[in-house]
Amino acid sequence: MTNTSLEVIGYVRCDYKEKFGIPRQSGLTDCATAFIEMLPPYNQAEAFRGLDGFSHLWLLWDFSKAHKNGFTATVKPPKLGGNQRMGVFATRSPFRPNNIGLSSVRLLDIIYNEENGCVHGLVVSGADILDGTPVYDIKPYLPYTDSHPEATGGWTDSLDIPELSVRFSDDITAKLETIFSSAQIEALKEILAQDPRPGYQDEPNRRYGMLYGGYDIRFTISGDTLTISEVAEPGPQ
Amino acid sequence: MTNTSLEVIGYVRCDYKEKFGIPRQSGLTDCATAFIEMLPPYNQAEAFRGLDGFSHLWLLWDFSKAHKNGFTATVKPPKLGGNQRMGVFATRSPFRPNNIGLSSVRLLDIIYNEENGCVHGLVVSGADILDGTPVYDIKPYLPYTDSHPEATGGWTDSLDIPELSVRFSDDITAKLETIFSSAQIEALKEILAQDPRPGYQDEPNRRYGMLYGGYDIRFTISGDTLTISEVAEPGPQ
Description:
homodimer, mainly beta, Elongation Factor Tu (Ef-tu), domain 3, YaeB-like fold, 2 domains, six-stranded antiparallel barrel, 12 strands, methyltransferase (chains A, B), tRNA (N6-threonylcarbamoyladenosine(37)-N6)-methyltransferase TrmO (chains A, B), YaeB-like (chains A, B), UPF0066_cons_site (chains A, B)
């Protein structure tokens, strides 16, 4: 007999409002912070006792936008050009038998609610998770058992993922500065530098849009340079 | 809307037949192997394509012997002497809001069933998991994003966990050799050297028993030496 239901213990609150543009693995954009808002009764301050000594955490969460029926044995990793299939168990694809995501993040702060003595939530960085994602567990990262720097990364070892150079014009920079904090702007640069396009697209004239922090960031990519062309308020949904 | 049910994709088959004696974290006993038996439809060979290039895996599994009702914010880690409470989110305790265990293991082999073209299962080492445990997911270990050797381990950093010296008499050695493979005997030595007692017990005359590979391994511990006194067939359940 196994458990068949999962309790949501919290929700991710962050600037990633849609799947497009989210870093493909955790830890790649250390600038971008996320807030893990805790729900009662899991927000009792006692439940976090001793957590502040850990630099990193594991988050277990729900691939809430990737549910589908039925099992497909293979997936097409975007970074393999989107036309090569790998076994789902050889990938971290969201389309898997159970939609549980696993991310290691850096713990920056624990925010207590002075009024009720509970934890409001955790500030973390490096999360590759969509805003509003349900969280199922928080576990401490234990370096003596979780860290295997000598591990081989299989087909991911041979991926050559160059960073893009990201260009903001003076106008765009001024606009960004009226909207975002400097940390958010740094995070946006990091995210864009990792090339949010699927691996099989290379259309210099195509205009891409990515929702970030409630705004639609529009850009083009030519060669290894990404240029932001507009920062627009998103239209009605 | 989140998923509320989990599909069992396989079962752990190993020599740990009861909770007592299981290593407290994955990777501590590299000798001990476990078999992850896959269930249809998740055993399709295609689902494992590309997995053989990874040296390590993550297993997500069910703490099937640790279900309980209600949420308790703190737990008593055995290695803290069993009388000090830590927040559940600062531990890897099985008693947590969702009973999902997380273990990194070494991938030793993928066993194919020649007759039906499916995967029978995976041979792994370092699993800290009970025999018969339901498995929910298998993910590749990605060293570039999962390995943080610089991470701080909070209260676990200050634990001093000395290894016991394990003594087998000639009689016991001969008996073990008639029952177990030499790899199983090595694994048993590793497991016992890590001191299976809860941290708060220190009774030199107490006789402990641990089920391993279908046999009841009985031993005493005095100072830093563990001596096996008997290897018995377990009684009727």
